[in-house]
Amino acid sequence: MSVAIPATSAVAKARRLVAKVGSSLVTNEGKGIDLVAVAQWAAQIAALHAQGRQIVLVSSGAIAEGMARLGWTQRPHTMNELQAAAAVGQMGLIQAYEVAFAKHNIRTAQILLTHEDLADRRRYLNARTTLYTLLSLGVVPIVNENDTVVTDEIRLGDNDTLGALVTNLIEAAALIILTDQRGLYSADPRTNPDAEFISVAQAGDPALEAMAGGAGSGIGTGGMLTKVLAAKRAANSGGHTIIASGREPDVLIRLAKGERIGSELRAILPVRSARKRWLANHLRLRGRVTLDVGAVRALMQNHKSLLSIGVTAVEGEFERGDVVACVDQHGVECGRGLINYSSTDTRRIMRQPSSRIPEILGSMSDQELMHRDNMVFVRAQASETSQASHTSNRF
Ligand SMILES: Nc1ncnc2c1ncn2[C@@H]1O[C@H](COP(=O)(O)OP(=O)(O)O)[C@@H](O)[C@H]1O
Ligand SMILES: N[C@@H](CCC(=O)OP(=O)(O)O)C(=O)O
To answer: Is the domain of 157 the same as that of 22?
Structure first.
């Protein structure tokens, strides 16, 4: 299978990575948490930390560990029993990671997410801000689905999808899915010994979906199909996906050195353009804020985030997380992005320094009105061009 993408390893260059470990690996095929494996992943992530990289670990295994703790040999079928097992097992999972990372003086944080948290833009922004804050503090977030509160209809069910959503959320350069196989084969190698190994392919190639089957172990839920679909999803924000064996010695460290291990499912679009496309096409403009000269300069020349003090007017009605345009004093758009405060709150805090936000609003969710990472810019110099198009004031 040929792909028209340069063969440079995205993982080797990546500052931010998402690693996902599946249930069968974490719990040693359901026998209970594999503390040796957990210690090895923690040591590898600690080594990547020392290189200045930021890692989010998505870990499955709560249900499998809960079953082991409760002495259940068969996976239950009812939702409430699965949820009870997850609640019991998640304790063990988090405890194991905390102990393993503490040996490297690294703190961990438990993040439990649902599909709804990532679909709702306000909750999405909160999750994103919290994850970024944890990463900047040098903490390793350990993510799992919030199994105890999700219902069947909205359940992601497998953590491959969750790993991809987290990759989109933090715009990680790559999603590394560690599993019990060497990677993706042309058919399930458990039942097809002649299956061919796929070392490189393009994420989203429909041919991959036909190759990938369901879980073979009885412990994991998604099998390869959810991994292939996760790669397609990760590619939406420019993330590459590597599917590799979690039992391969120093797999994360070697991947980060640029070694080719496992199956590489490559994204075509770079992270920045993917984000830009998402902001530009998928979200409706809800309003606009007018910036003073200093704010335009801070954004366009000094690459800073937008602060409330630089806003002189607000048009439209919007909520936190909506897309709002930033215009200069002539009404010319310089950029747009996800705003951290509603139109009502923005009107109250405009022209005011961020330090006054808690006093004016009673609390402060973010220092910035619009974070640079959540913005795309229309052109280099907003105030210079009179021909540049004006943002429509119909929202
Ligand atoms: N084309 C394929 N290539 C490799 N493995 C496959 C393929 N199709 C199905 N599988 C199965 O997917 C399993 C891995 O998925 P799963 O059990 O859900 O693991 P995890 O818990 O790591 O997510 C493998 O053990 C294998 O039996
Ligand atoms: N949230 C669930 C994960 C579900 C699951 O089995 O995921 P996976 O092993 O990645 O296919 C748990 O912790 O048990």
So the answer is: yes
DSSP class of residue 213? -
Which of 75, 145, 160, 179 for a ligand 1 pocket mutation test, highest count of atoms within 8 Å of Cβ? 179
Residue 17 has pLDDT above 80, yes or no: yes
Pocket-forming residues, ligand 2, beta carbon under 6 Å: 22-23, 60-64, 86, 144-145, 147, 158-160, 220-222
Say how many C-beta atoms besides its own lie within 10 A of residue 194's C-beta: 8
| Cα–Cα dist 392/382, whole Å | 16
With H, G, I as helix, E, B as strand and everything else as coil, classify residue 57: strand
Contacts of 13 (CB under 8 A, 6+ apart): 173
ipTM at complex level = 0.97
The total number of structural domains in the chain stands at 2
pLDDT at residue 189 tops 90: yes
Structural tokens at position 251: 């797999």
Between CA 37 and CA 276, with CA 114 as vertex, the angle to 5 degrees is 95
Q: Taking the model in full, what pTM does it have?
A: 0.79
Ligand nearest to the CA of 60: 2
124 C-alpha to center of ligand 1: Å? Answer: 30
> Closest Cα to atom 5, ligand 1: which residue?
188
Check which CATH number belongs to the domain holding 267 and give it.
Answer: 3.40.1160.10
